[in-house]
Design a protein that fits this description.
single chain; alpha+beta; Aspartate Aminotransferase, domain 1; YdhG-like; DUF1801 domain-containing protein
Length: 129
């Protein structure tokens, strides 16, 4: 695990740390080619410079975010923001369903919108895959 991400996880209360560690380990396993780092103060994984998955500690939960998640057609993922992102919020480690997470990560690899160039395109997203 990227040292900065482990440091982020270690700063969480025990239940949230367990959620974060499980998410990070699964993402690292399922997207071994992804670059991971702290981006805008949160752990994020990138494929070819494009953000695809990440998580952040909110007041009452840990939010798992997929930048292109609205295109995944997954009922459990809720729309987030005005672009194509979708999220799932965890309040306990027992809520993590590994089969769902693996499927979402596979879709994160296969279905991507070009967030890397969104500023250059003045807020317009184009589908990459």
């Amino acid at each position: 695990m990227h040292p900065a991400i482990q440091e982020y996880n270690n700063k969480q209360v025990p239940t949230d740390k367990e959620i974060c560690d499980q998410l990070a380990n699964t993402i690292n396993t399922e997207l071994p080619e992804a670059e991971s780092k702290i981006w805008h103060a949160h752990p994020v994984w990138f494929l070819d410079g494009n953000p695809v998955a990440g998580y952040s500690k909110l007041k009452d939960s840990v939010r798992l975010l997929f930048w292109s998640g609205q295109t995944f057609e997954e009922a459990k993922l809720q729309p987030e923001g005005k672009f194509k992102a979708a999220e799932f919020r965890y309040t306990s480690p027992e809520q993590i369903e590994i089969a769902d997470l693996k499927r979402w990560l596979q879709k994160a690899r296969e279905i991507q919108w070009d967030y890397k160039n969104i500023v250059k395109r003045k807020g317009q997203l184009e589908r990459l895959k």
